[in-house]
Amino acid sequence: MWIVIPAYNEAKIIQTVIQEIKAAGYHNIIVVDDGSQDNTYEQARSTGVITLRHQLNRGKGAATKTGIEAVKKLGAHIIVTMDGDGQHNPEDIARLIQPINEHHCDVVLGTRLKNPRGMPWYKILANKIGNLVTWYFYGLYVSDSQSGFRAYSRPAVNLINTKTDRYEYDSEVIREIYIYKLKYTEVPIEVRYTEYSMGKIQKQGLVNGLKTLYKIIWNIIS
Amino acid sequence: MSLALYQIIIIFFAILMISQGIKNFFKRENGQTFIKLFVRIIVWGGMATIVAFPYASNFIASLIGIQDNVNAAVLAGFLLVFMMIFKLLSAIERLEQQITTVTRDRAISHIHKESEK
Questions:
Q1: Whole-number mean pLDDT of chain B?
Q2: Which residues in chain A have their CB less than 8 angstroms from residue B92's CB?
Q3: Nearest CA of chain B to the CA of A63: how many Å?
Q4: Residue A27 falls in which region: left (phi positive, over 0), alpha (psi -120 to 50) or beta
Q5: CB 3.0-4.6 Å disulfide test: which of A8, A135, B3, B88 passes with A34?
Q6: Do the chains contact at B112 and A163, CB–CB below 8 Å?
Q7: Are the beta carbons of B104 and A163 separated by less than 8 Å?
Q8: pLDDT, greater one: B4 or A23
Q9: Residues 6+ apart with CB under 8 A from A127
Q10: Are A40 and A52 in contact (CB under 8 A)?
Q11: B30 falls in which pLDDT band (50, 70, 90)?
């Protein structure tokens, strides 16, 4: 099993994130630095994990796909994706991969909305809107279409072919699940909304949400 | 029926664009879907029709409630500008995807060396 972490300007926290994952017992980790302007790449690399670098910032979706393509080359059977800002708890990884190992699921979606304790009301609202938009345009309703904490089986990543680069990537994966009729399940995850993660400007806010909506519509009509 | 030079040029372009769309559709190139082909035929076909038969715009004008054919022509002009912007955005999107592919390939090129460390 491999863990893919897309990271953009996460120099302050990326080492902690990696150490936490290692402490939880997972050592196959790949960090994709998405053209950060700080020293995210050097910080991640110094922990000894595989670190790749995008020369240009291409977006979370593009960085995640790069990580997935890389671990496919390393022969990964199960791939977990998680954010680089420390909001995901590595203790949840075991529950995330269990349905793949035991029930032959193709994709496991970590969902924040089944356990929204500590989640700001506006994030809950934004997520619900994101779910409705994803359902309307891509045909599948899931309880957290914007979560980056997911697990994939190897056959699933061989089928899933995303084209989008930024936050619309998460919704595009839902479309691929629907198109290829992949077996999926949703697992509640804990989300740690820290001062650090809430303060990041490139996170999915209102403006980025509208951009994502525009991109989803654009990808359908273009 | 005699055609002015501008009519011949626009009809030629319309035929070119539609035939290109049909070719792309059957060869499955440039992500050409049926809906895209349909929109292309409507826009370019409509433009060629209006140019070849200018009085056809009177019929369209009365059909959709526009007062005269000059207004219909202005509307068609808007459609043309819209189409051009659409093409421009499509080209930018394609370039963005190509940049991502190149960036990704460069990032992954050392993966085996990295994993041996």
A1: 81
A2: none
A3: 8
A4: alpha
A5: A8
A6: no
A7: no
A8: A23
A9: A112, A113, A144, A145, A146
A10: no
A11: low
